[in-house]
Amino acid sequence: MRAQASGARETLRGALERRLLAIWFPAGVAPSLDANDRPARSRLPERLLAPLSLLTARVARARRARVQRRTPQDRPAVVVIGNLVVGGTGKTPAAIAVARTLAGRGWRVAALAGGYRGTRSDARPVGPGDDAAEHGDEAVLLARATGVPVAAGRRRGEALALLEAREPAPEIVVCDDGLQHPGLPRTLEVAVFDARGAGNGRLLPAGPLREPLAHAASMDALLLNGDAPAPLQGPRCFRFRIEPTAFRALHDGRRLDPRAFAALAAGRPLAALAGIAQPARFFATLRALGLSPTEHPLPDHALIGPATLAAITAPLIVMTSKDAVKCAAIADDRCWTLEVSARIEPAFYDWIEERLRGQPIA
């Protein structure tokens, strides 16, 4: 009974997400198009939600005023990789790439996450073998993919304190999300955008913005996914791409390159699960790799249990990395995950190091 109720809630949440996304990112509307330039009928839902957006604006401005900045000399330096737009920009792969690359350049690095949708809210360390249902999928994915110490907590400042108390203490803490959390002091703020830009340009719930787009002008840099246009002028802009690297079997860790997995799947029914903000992007990636999956879109950060997998009869199931960490204990030999990497231009890492070392930036 409880499982049925949970499934019904997830279905309702998914339907609501799809409806809101259709409002926030109307098809055929350029990301920079002003909301008032669209037909009145398409703007009606936005207008009905506009009064609540005024409250979002007030809260966002108050939070922004309380943000505490660290100097580049403070240690650990806190680099926040976050969104002004709700979900799906490539933020988590970018944060993983930043943590791994800076560690590879010789810095002592740790990572921090909020633990969204995890059952625990307290500040705690998170390891690669921990339960995603308890700690949140992003936190466990960070621990598995980066190999650096990770802490999570709804109060990000408390999670940061855990990392600061480590011996040896990290020199840099990379935070996956957190731009809207004034309790988290930060040294550098990086906002991530994809091709959707700022959508209809409105604040939640009438649009996808967590805070006014004008706040992006105060960010230290913008990371633009693929060919995404800069949503405004001012901050430094760097680019990255999300690239598939390998398919990994959840039950035994076996890895196949995309071509070898396509050969394995040839002529066999394949199902694809995606509990992320933009499942269509994941499905398009699979098709670009020569696969033809039956698509199973789920709500962002959806709960995945044994019943979810049991309902799928295909002999092969492929899912995102975020979904895979939730399936570690229940996956059967049909389950694979597509691992991806964010390829960020090297100048971005040079810029971070120059800023943290107090060197002049050209």
What fold name stands as the CATH topology of the largest domain? Rossmann fold
Instruction: State the CATH superfamily name of the largest domain.
Output: P-loop containing nucleotide triphosphate hydrolases
Distance between the termini: 62 Å
Integer tally of domains: 2
Q: What is the makeup of the main sheet?
A: 13 strands, mixed
Please explain how this structure is put together.
- With 362 residues, the protein is of the alpha/beta class.
- It folds into 2 domains: 66-240 and 344-356, P-loop containing nucleotide triphosphate hydrolases (Rossmann fold); 243-342.
- The chain has helices spanning 2-24, 40-66, 91-104, 132-135, 137-146, 156-164, 258-265, 279-288, 306-310, 321-326, 346-356; strands at 77-82, 109-113, 124-126, 150-152, 172-176, 188-193, 221-225, 236-249, 255-256, 270-274, 294-297, 316-319, 335-344.
- Strands 1, 2, 3, 4, 5, 6, 7, 8, 9, 10, 11, 12 and 13 form a 13-stranded mixed β-sheet that branches.
Summarize this entry quickly.
The protein is an alpha/beta fold and 362 residues long. Helix content is 35%, strand content 20%. Strands 1, 2, 3, 4, 5, 6, 7, 8, 9, 10, 11, 12 and 13 form a 13-stranded mixed sheet that branches.
List its traits.
single chain; 362 residues; alpha/beta; Rossmann fold; 13-stranded mixed β-sheet; 11 helices; 20% strand
Write the layout of secondary structure elements.
Elements: H1 2-24, H2 40-66, E1 77-82, H3 91-104, E2 109-113, E3 124-126, H4 132-135, H5 137-146, E4 150-152, H6 156-164, E5 172-176, E6 188-193, E7 221-225, E8 236-249, E9 255-256, H7 258-265, E10 270-274, H8 279-288, E11 294-297, H9 306-310, E12 316-319, H10 321-326, E13 335-344, H11 346-356
Parallel strand pairs: 1-5, 1-6, 2-4, 2-5, 6-7, 7-8, 10-11, 10-12, 12-13
Antiparallel strand pairs: 3-4, 8-9, 8-13
